[in-house]
Amino acid sequence: MRRFKRVLLGVVFAVSAVAGTAGWASGNAQRPVTGPPPGAAAWSADRSLGRALPDPAQTEPERVAAFFAGLTPAERRLLVARHPLIVGNLDGVPVALRYEANARAVRGTPYERLARDGRRVLAFDPRGRGQVAEVYGDLATARRVAVVVPGSDTDAGSFDRPGKGHRVVAGMAKALRDATVRTTGPAAGRNGGTAVIAWTGYTTPVGVGIDAATGGLAEAGAPRLARFTRGLTAVGAPRPSLFCHSYGSVVCGLAAADAHASDIVVLGAPGMRADSVADLDTDARVWAARNADDWIARVPNVELLGLGHGEDPVSGGFGARRVPAREAAGHDGYFAPGTDSLRAFAAIARGESR
Hints:
Layout: H1 2-19, H2 22-27, H3 40-45, H4 61-69, H5 73-82, H6 84-89, H7 95-105, E1 120-125, E2 131-136, E3 144-149, H8 169-181, E4 194-200, H9 210-213, H10 216-234, E5 241-245, H11 248-255, E6 263-267, E7 285-289, E8 321-322, H12 340-349
Parallel strand pairs: 3-4, 3-5, 5-6, 6-7, 7-8
Antiparallel strand pairs: 1-2, 2-4
Helix pairs in contact: 4-10, 5-7, 8-12, 10-11
């Protein structure tokens, strides 16, 4: 009875917090982007190679990788030229081919900046607010791979917003990449082999409203994350470590069983839609970080009537390994250069933490 009262009070608190901005929250409700990007019908109808092309909605990344391995260079170039949006987003396609396809796909869109200065865009979808995944480091030769999964208010327009540094997902990925490389001692020679991906591949909540308090957008995003990570391993990349910030932790929790991750690190997490690490059904090591002044600690850890995201990942009963975060500040300070949290993240990304 005591636990029921505590949960009920938590739900009342959550509902009250959302109700206080109900008009604003409902006005910013997001429709999740799902399925393959525009051009899927033309791709499916294309018989220019004399055979059917892989179904972008159904074909597993491993089979996509096998299909492209059997193509000639000329056939690959033909598909990039005819269907850049599909090739650039099809998990299991060789990395260099996806970069080439996405450099074409962004032309003539509001996101042309993504084709400048040799940027390595591994995925690009112009629908909705736009989605993008960008690589920092050499993914083709990386000995370790990390994927940063962001929370609310992140899309193709804002993921690399100038002046925000480590507080936006591109800055988080850059900071993590730099931290894996900038080291001294015996490990220094190995660290160039870590590639970090800023993955803005799902429709994120806008603000802290109904979408952020419920799991709908995470449920739509989790299969996209799992397929993306499986696409990495299908082309020979190592099993990635996932670094999941805020609402991104909910996405990672729902994707955990299928993501083929080596480590799952949640930071500033409202929950993972699980009561414990065992409930995630993953063999990945699970880590959790939260600093003392992160406002997320005041969000009730409940899941009832569709509200809330479950147990607190930093609680002892959840079973996650703790990541030090004494030097991080606020909800978006975990990747700040020089902090204990970023040093710990870099050690996990390099595979050095036990």
